[in-house]
Backbone:
């Protein structure tokens, strides 16, 4: 009796799998890798060949013992897949050391297939040892491109230009940006007319001036680059984030609404007024002398339209040390609603909450009498983190 009931249950489950609509099955397969998707063909006769219609491809070398087996698998999948079905997304992880010839052969084969099938989202991750220059390619369908190199020394070099008219989001991490004879790198984006979101992290580039001037760029992130002597940032931006990006940053973006800047020193210049600023968050870890204080005051004058301003304690301390630079100036902040001051990452053993002079405080809030002035201590930060953690746990509990 027990065995009979087990057979009935198996038949019911089999019927349920067979009765699922194709769209739902394809949706399920989109959440797993291509190798795992093919294995589902044994679940039901309906599922046997449906993987050949999946619009999502996900290949990873970690699923195979050797690179040759990976290449044979990829070749077999591409040849068996229904050619009339477009590729909506491609995830490619090359997480094994490989020769340049293997890298070019595998990557180019997969890329050519995806591009010829109107891929819209493309994510490529390469392990160390994959040192090669990408071939120039074009696409009228690709909207999101992410290229990640997991080794800063052996990185992937981008082509001189990418002709991707539909591209809206480009994320590059740990790659080398192609540079021409003058050291310029920004020509890479010149044929991406609809680019709106650009993120460059841990990238290597030429030693010349790095310029980004794109008419539709809305969000730009520059993070962790130790190369290049000088950098100009002058697109028509809404949101700009710069973190530890070596060079002198000249910002000329009149439509900017959000600015986040963090570095050890102060190579930041604002060349024009920013009348639409809503939020500014600036953290400078080492402010040493009068020149630094003067540069900070000049920058603050350009940020006069900001509503929500966040600074770290080092900026306040340097202004207190050279208060004569602001003591005879009226407050430039007419729209300020809040000013928040955060302490150092590591607390001082002697003093964690220094006194802020009246002149410095008045410089920020006199122009906006209703603005709030808040200095956070390390104890405040720890309390906020605990509160945030408790809120997250409560939300998780409610979902369960």
Residues:
């Amino acid at each position: 009796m027990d065995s009979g009931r087990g057979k009935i249950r198996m038949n019911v489950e089999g019927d349920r799998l067979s009765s699922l609509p194709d769209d739902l099955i394809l949706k399920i397969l989109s959440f797993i890798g291509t190798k795992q998707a093919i294995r589902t063909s044994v679940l039901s006769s309906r599922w046997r060949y449906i993987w050949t219609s999946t619009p999502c491809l996900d290949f990873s070398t970690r699923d195979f013992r050797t690179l040759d087996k990976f290449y044979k698998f990829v070749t077999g999948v591409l040849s068996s897949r229904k050619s009339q079905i477009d590729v909506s997304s491609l995830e490619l992880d090359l997480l094994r050391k490989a020769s340049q010839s293997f890298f070019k052969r595998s990557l180019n084969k997969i890329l050519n297939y995806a591009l010829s099938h109107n891929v819209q989202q493309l994510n490529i991750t390469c392990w160390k040892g994959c040192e090669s220059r990408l071939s120039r390619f074009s696409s009228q369908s690709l909207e999101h491109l992410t290229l990640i190199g997991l080794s800063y020394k052996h990185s992937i070099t981008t082509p001189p230009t990418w002709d991707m008219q539909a591209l809206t989001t480009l994320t590059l991490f740990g790659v080398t940006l192609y540079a021409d004879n003058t050291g310029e790198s920004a020509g890479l984006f010149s044929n991406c007319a609809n680019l709106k979101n650009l993120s460059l992290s841990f990238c290597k580039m030429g030693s010349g001036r790095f310029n980004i001037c794109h008419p539709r760029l809305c969000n730009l992130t520059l993070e962790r680059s130790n190369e290049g002597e000088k950098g100009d940032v002058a697109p028509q931006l809404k949101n700009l984030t710069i973190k530890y990006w070596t060079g002198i940053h000249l910002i000329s973006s009149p439509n900017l609404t959000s600015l986040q800047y963090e570095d050890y020193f102060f190579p930041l210049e604002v060349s024009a007024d920013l009348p639409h600023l809503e939020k500014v968050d600036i953290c400078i870890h080492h402010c040493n002398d009068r020149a630094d204080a003067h540069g900070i005051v000049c920058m603050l004058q350009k940020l006069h339209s900001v509503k929500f301003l966040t600074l770290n304690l080092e900026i306040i301390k340097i202004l207190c040390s050279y208060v004569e630079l602001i003591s005879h100036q009226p407050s430039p902040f007419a729209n300020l609603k809040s000013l928040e001051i955060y302490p150092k990452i590591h607390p001082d053993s002697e003093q964690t909450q220094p006194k802020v002079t009246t002149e410095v405080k008045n410089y920020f809030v006199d122009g906006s009498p209703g603005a709030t002035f808040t200095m956070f201590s390390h104890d405040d930060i720890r309390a906020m983190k605990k509160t945030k953690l408790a809120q997250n746990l409560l939300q998780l509990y409610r979902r369960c």
